[in-house]
Specification:
This protein has 284 residues and is mainly β. The longest helix has 20 residues. The chain is globular.
């Protein structure tokens, strides 16, 4: 009976997924001649028109490319943001200098550094500005309000050290030295930021690919603005994964509380709420 119920539930879920899939048109090619090994992507209003543009980073071509949205479903490659950032494995958009346009933040996996490029508001980017060097195997990068000064700080994963670190922004694109968030695993692959516990501070979830664990670090921001992170008191959110590709926060069950989702290359896609694990769909 349990097998029958599970089969029916999965059948309904897959049928629902198929129905929703039918809402999409066929695949549209943005560009078929990007730099070698396109690996990361983000989108935003790069040139301040009404259309959402796209940026990609390549690990083999060492490029950051941006594609202008023409507003009719087509995109045009613009002047490269850079062509010599060795192994772009982290990429995101944010206004780092409070001039009301979005800048580009990136990591160089082989170059072991974290950098940003200033946008003039029209999609013209300045030269590379170094935030930090000697970040071995610099990977996933995210932006959020970590401390109390209302500026967009940066969180980055270092594969070599097994650490996830953050840098405080003064609001003009100048950054402090590295500050530790956590290092309870090896090979931090993916990170995400959100106020998980609802206390008004930005927390961090990390998926470690080598040690196959997911860790939650809660921000202990004090009234005087001091930041420290505390690993979840229950230990690892998840362990024993075979190959963690992605972790993120999201309200899976629509109860207005954030859950933690992981994508395991060789296992199931799991939605995890605190320590409760709910099977959503089998990944192939």
């Amino acid at each position: 009976m349990k097998k029958l119920i599970l089969t029916l539930v999965l059948s309904l879920l897959l049928s629902n997924l198929i129905c929703h899939a039918q809402l999409f048109s066929s695949k549209k090619i943005i560009n078929s001649s990007t730099g070698n090994l396109p690996s990361v992507i983000d989108s935003g209003y790069i040139d301040n028109d009404a259309n959402i543009d796209i940026i990609i980073g390549t690990t083999g071509g060492n490029t950051i490319e941006w594609y202008k949205n023409n507003g009719n479903g087509t995109f045009t490659l613009q002047t490269l943001i850079t062509s010599n950032l060795q192994g772009v494995l982290g990429l995101t958009l944010a206004d780092l200098d409070n001039d009301l346009d979005i800048d580009v933040i990136a990591t160089a996996y082989f170059g072991a550094k974290l950098v940003w490029f200033e946008n003039d508001g029209n999609g013209n980017f300045g030269s590379e500005q170094l935030i930090a060097s000697e970040i071995g195997e610099a990977g996933s990068v995210k932006v959020g309000l970590i401390d109390s000064n209302n500026t967009k700080d940066i969180v980055v994963a270092s594969g070599t050290s097994g650490q996830v670190i953050w840098f405080s922004n003064d609001g003009s694109g100048n950054f402090s030295g590295a500050q530790l968030i956590g290092s309870d695993g090896s090979g931090p692959r993916s990170i995400d930021l959100a106020d998980f516990n609802g206390d008004g501070d930005i927390d961090v979830v990390v998926g470690f690919i080598t040690t196959r664990n997911v860790e939650l670090y809660e921000n202990q921001l004090s009234q005087n603005g001091t930041v420290s992170f505390l690993r979840d008191s229950n230990g690892s959110i998840s362990s024993g994964s075979s190959f963690i590709n992605e972790v993120s926060f999201g309200d899976v069950d629509n109860d207005n509380q954030l859950d933690i989702i992981k994508v395991d290359k060789n296992g199931p896609l799991l939605g995890i709420k605190k320590k409760l694990m709910v099977l959503l769909v089998k990944a192939h």
